[in-house]
Amino acid sequence: MALSDVKVLGSWPSPFVLRPRIALHLKSVNYEYIEENLLESKSELLLKSNPVFKKVPVLLHGDKPICESLIIVQYIDEVWSSGPSILPSDPYERANSRFWAAYIDEKWFPALRGVLAAESEDAKKAAIAQVEEGLVLLEEAFGKLSQGKPFFGGDQIGYLDIALGSFLVWLKVIEKISEMKLLTEAKTRCLLEWAHRFSSHVAVKDVMPEADKLAEFGVKLRAKILKARAIPK
Amino acid sequence: MATEEVKLLGFWVSPPVFRVKWALEIKGVKYEYIEEDIFNKSTLLMELNPVHKKVPVLVHDGKAIAESFVILEYIDETWKQNPLLPQDPYQRALARFWAKFAEEKILRGAWNALCSQGEEKQKALEQTIEAMEKIEGELEGKEQFFGGESVGYLDIILGWISYCLPVWEEVGSMQILNPLKFPAITAWINRFLNHPVVKDKLPPTDKMLVYFHQRSKALASTSHGNRAENGKNKNKTPRTG
What biological process terms from GO does the record include (chain B) (predicted)? Predict the structure, then answer.
């Protein structure tokens, strides 16, 4: 398949963009990566490929655009079915993976973002508490789902590893902002070890952003968010 | 083959619960329905869905699955007859995309419009109608349903529009689905309401009117206290699952 047949429209700070990139790497699919600048106005290509949400990531497979990171990962899993499976084969295990991925995106990630965007110390503390609570739940889920193996997906990285792992560098940035460790030996020992394994995995390590660079970006993003809020509607 | 035990924990009016019912009935799967009082949650519910403590929860041979979108995919993968999602990966991705879109922009949007007033309500209404236009566009050129000739995943996800949205419109004194503006969706609603798994199995309208009247009042009175400091509206959607 020609290189230009598969493209990913993304943005280097976005955790969601990491997901299709990791998935394509797991399937050994070559693709062209096209960078969008999140802090500037959106490109023609992005607006044309994702007119509904105007967001990255977008997977362009031939002339077909696929949007929403987890939907893209499932698409990749289904199209390149001869590669290693990303979702488990058992329907109940698949349901568990989907359940926790939805939890991460709908409940946990907003709390993480809440720390970055917090206007007051109280709001920041409340958001941090939610992030910690979520990590404790995910630690428990890891115990049940990994069944003693290195990843949520078992011996190999799977759907849920990708869903959570894509946030690991942002989590480091949030730890810096909170001035505390959120993944700890005491409360989330398994996740802490899993995080090292995930981050150093061959399909992951080259696409993860650098923590310092992301922290710098985080400062700019926070300023942008707070400024947008201050503008009277 | 071992006897399969299927139970569904639900709440009489909940849209996410109806999704699961419709899916099970399309597949011809027998199940035991257990009504939950979501305002006085049972120990069973807390045990089966400790993370969200919400309905629907599907229990299949002792295994509990929560979240209606997750349950629907589980049902489709476990019982292969009458497939809900299309076979083609790209069509599947589109169905999942529109389902997510509709949940965020239409279900939540309509609920926010119901529970708010003034400028906030107007804004929520406009955004919901804008989203509905995209769904109207998706229906054009389709045969009977989003799933083609038969009811599929996206029909089931959006099915709440057929029975619940008119009630919300009345309770909220608002119009989202003007039949003149949305002829395709209006026709789809009529076909959906006449489908054998839907017809005559919906909650009574008068009971729904009373219920949503109470809920919208209760939530409207707390919404100002609940407003998160980042300005986001914290009105709870009836995401009973």
Answer: glutathione metabolic process; toxin catabolic process
